[in-house]
Specification:
single chain, 19% strand
Length: 277
């Protein structure tokens, strides 16, 4: 998206959308992580507890059964879920190898496995559950389900064509939104997921195998659970994301981050890739 379009998008986002009234239905929160996420996760949790405008039933951390992760969950009153217990197998069993243009091979099994967890509907007891990336911090109140039981999706201006190519292969007749559903967070409805799973279950293949088979092995990022589910759901409310990507150099305590950014942003993300340059 051009810089001018981004400016227009942000102005439109602030001025044209009325406030939403949140549903009182309880939700679970599901956060798939690996050990390196633990240093940023406390900020993510603070944002969840302060800015999710729905009763939170439980927060689940889905991760490898490593002692440091289990101990973190105990200290922060989180429900630990061994990732292997969700499907009965782990990330390495997907064997998703990507062949890069420079002749190397990249293993994307763990990346896709976390997306399968989000799409599974197998974690938690509530009908609705919020998935959020561990490096994403909410700094303003967010409504994810309205009084009318409509799911609220926060839209970004990310434009990654392989995601849309994959959806066209999986569901050729699906209409695609002009903006992206990739926003680091999404509320899932288990009833909607069951319908999506049925659509993707073909010729004796599970929905996961259908997605795995459709994955372009030349694309490091060739599938998006957020794009697929967001476009699949019909009864919904769309809102802009207004988030800011920051490097670890900008890390601070939660109050400081809110003071610095909440007047112009609704959320912050501290992506790992920005700290490898």
């Amino acid at each position: 998206m051009s810089q001018l379009r981004k400016i227009r998008y942000r102005l439109f986002a602030w001025r044209w959308f009325p406030k939403l009234r949140p549903s009182t239905e309880p939700v679970d929160v599901v956060i798939p992580i690996i050990a390196k996420d633990l240093h940023i996760l406390p900020l993510c949790l603070e944002g969840i507890r302060r800015c999710v405008t729905h009763p939170i039933q439980q927060i689940y951390i889905v991760a490898p059964a490593q002692q440091e992760i289990i101990q973190f969950c105990e200290e922060h009153q989180l429900q630990f879920v061994d990732e292997v217990s969700v499907f009965g197998f782990g990330p390495k069993d997907l064997h998703l190898q990507i062949h890069t243009s420079d002749g190397h091979t990249m293993d994307r099994s763990g990346w896709l496995f976390q997306q399968f967890i989000k799409l599974s509907g197998k974690v938690g007891t509530c009908r609705y559950y919020l998935c959020i990336d561990a490096d994403h911090v909410l700094i303003r109140p967010h409504v994810f389900l309205t009084e009318e039981q409509q799911t609220v999706f926060y839209m970004s201006y990310e434009e990654h064509q392989p995601y849309y190519n994959n959806i066209r292969q999986l569901m050729p007749d699906m209409s695609l939104a002009p903006l992206s559903y990739v926003d680091h967070k999404m509320l899932f409805d288990k009833e909607q997921l069951e319908m999506l799973h049925q659509e993707l279950t073909r010729e004796g293949q599970s929905w996961m195998n259908t997605i795995l088979k459709s994955y372009d092995r030349l694309q490091p990022s060739g599938f998006s659970e957020f794009e697929l589910y967001g476009n699949f759901v019909q009864d919904k409310v769309l809102r802009p994301w207004l988030q800011k990507r920051l490097s670890y150099k900008k890390l601070a305590d939660y109050e400081t981050l809110c003071h610095q950014w909440s007047r112009c942003r609704w959320s912050l993300t501290f992506p790992d890739y920005m700290n490898k340059k």
